[in-house]
Amino acid sequence: MNGNGEMTLAFELSALKELASPGTVFDDARRWTQYVGVISDQPTYVVTNFTRKNRIRQDFFSGPKGKAESLDSVKAQFDTDRHVFVAMTDEDRELAEEHDWEFLHVEDAAEAADWTLASDEDDDDDAVEEDVRDDWP
Q1: 124/5 Cα distance (integer angstroms)
Q2: What is the rounded CA–CA span in Å between residue 6 and residue 34?
Q3: Is 123 part of any domain?
Q4: Three-state SS across 5-38?
Q5: How do residues 59-73 score in pLDDT, each as one tens digit?
Q6: In this structure, what are the phi and psi dihedrals at residue 4, rounded to the nearest 5 degrees?
């Protein structure tokens, strides 16, 4: 991904959880976006706990609103050339399109930005475990 800072990037919480290092992803995204945050239907405390645990400083979050209202609110508040919603489901794709956001599947975003998916990291851990077991007497 590339950009000139004229982008608002929103992660759906479940998509963010698919990334191996969400805090690093946010730090990286700040280099080429103007605003980055989390949108979710989950209660505020769930989002807050996750972002604190991963040392994520977000410019916005959905709070007690639903995703649809949050997409509208963020778009109205953060005036950038592009608004991109990183999520995982067809429902989220439809929601993004209905609210004039670009949709990007988390796997496509990870590939484009060279972010590691948690599932990829798990595969690497499995490979290491298999190597260790091969060395056993």
Answers
A1: 33
A2: 6
A3: yes
A4: CCEEEEEEHHHHHCECCHHHHHHHHCCCCCEEEE
A5: 998 878 899 999 999
A6: -115, 20
- 51-57 contacts, C-beta under 8 A, 24 or more apart: 54/21, 54/22, 54/23, 55/23, 56/22, 56/23, 56/26, 57/26
Range of the domain at 42: 7-134
85 token code pair = 């919603």
Say what the pTM is.
0.84
- Taken in order 60, 63, 67, 68, the sign of the CA dihedral is negative
**pLDDT digit string, tens, across residues 76-117:** 999 999 999 999 999 999 999 999 999 999 999 999 999 999
Identify whether 20 is part of a domain: yes
Asked whether residue 1 is assigned to any structural domain, the reply reads no
Distance CA 8, CA 75 (A): 8
How many domains does the chain divide into?
1
Say which DSSP state 61 is in.
B
- Token pair of 11, please? 């992660």
Task: Find tokens 């993004």 and name the residue.
Answer: 96
The CATH number given to whatever domain includes residue 41 is 3.40.50.1000
